[in-house]
Amino acid sequence: MTDAPDNPAESGEQSREEKRNSRKQTILYFAILIAISVLSFFVYRIYDFVCICRIPPGTAVVDTRTVSPYNPALDGLFRKFPKQLLIYRHYVIPEGVTEIGERAFHDSGCLLLRSVAIPGSVKKIGRSAFEECCNLTTIELPEGVETIEPLAFRRCVNLKRVELPDSLKTIGGGAFAACTSLEKIRIPPGVEEIGLGAFAGCTALADVELPPGVNVAPGAFDGTLVPPEKISSLNQPQP
Q1: Which domain holds residue 223?
Q2: Angle CA(82)–CA(116)–CA(120) in degrees, nearest 5?
């Protein structure tokens, strides 16, 4: 048999005070959580803004050596950190660059790469240049690009929009293979050849605009939602 409280009124007041304190603590925890979330968002946006790598001016060919931290104002600071710790989200390639070389971004920590500004001086996108850049969502190739070499954008699984210039002549084998988020593509009228498996495994690709007479290699659109008969009918020279 338990003893009854000596003063029920005092006990009730103490219980109410405990409940009030508990509510205050809950509100405080939620306020701290919201504050941390808001702060994290702004830190992320600031980091996203700051993390722009500007390729050094005077570069002719972008390769794994030039895809490295560069900023005239902060260059000295950047040099103090290991290269692998400075993974950039956005790259700015200067006018004058004529080629994005083989595996330039694939071998340079492109995991977080989201966008790249390509100037009109670029003529060629090299083999595997952007391969497996899995956070790249959009690529706009400027007028002047003539060649996309094999595997250039292979396995860019979040690539949803691709703008190809009218100057483009060749799309290499597997250039956009396994870009599983790509839903449509317009092939410019100047394109002469689409290589083996160029868009193979683009499982969401359903809308393809092909110029008449373009040379489409076998398997270029295997594993897509484009009916094979549509490709074969478009791949006929005009009379």
Answers
A1: 53-239
A2: 125
User: Does residue 112 share a domain with residue 25?
Assistant: no
Q: What is the pLDDT of residues 158-190, one digit of tens each?
A: 999 999 999 999 999 999 999 999 999 999 999
**d(Cα 2, Cα 57) in Å, to the nearest integer?**
85
C-alpha pair distances (Å), 45 with each of 40, 64, 147: 9, 27, 35
Q: What is this structure's pTM?
A: 0.74
In tens, the pLDDT along 80-91 reads: 554 444 467 888
CATH at residue 149: 3.80.10.10
Measured CA distances, 16 to 7, 10, 22, 93 (Å)? 15, 10, 10, 65
- The tokens for 170 are 């060749």
CB of 184 closer than 8 Å to CB of 205? yes
pLDDT 10s digits, 127-157: 999 999 999 999 999 999 999 999 999 999 9
- Sequence-separated (6 or more) residues with CB below 8 Å from residue 228: 221
